[in-house]
Amino acid sequence: MSNVEDRRVFPRIPLLSEVWLKESADGPKTHAQTQDLSKGGLRVQLKKPDYDVGQLVFLELRVPGSKVIIPARGTVCWQSKTEIGVSFVELPAESAAAIEIALDKALEELRSFENEKTPTA
Prior knowledge:
Layout: H1 2-7, E1 13-14, E2 18-22, E3 30-37, E4 41-45, E5 56-62, E6 69-79, E7 83-90, H2 93-117
Antiparallel strand pairs: 1-3, 2-3, 2-5, 3-4, 4-7, 5-6, 6-7
């Protein structure tokens, strides 16, 4: 996965949230959990990934810490035995703004946690 990481434009932030994936706009949903999120995509943990690299997927992502569900479309970039990486290809402006707010909040919490762990002299 180091090649994937080298190609990333946006840093991924560890962030757990619910996500539903569909192979078509009106297809059945598969419930899963994000492992991390960025402005450009996400890593999803699945019990049994059944997606092909390059496949288009329809996403419904719960904004962490809220009941808001945002739609998106993405392409599967990589797959392992329990996870897939998805790059956003269509993200409505409202969805992008909601993701950015969630990422900012998560970064703030991470920094706060790191500052608490840092010993003071």
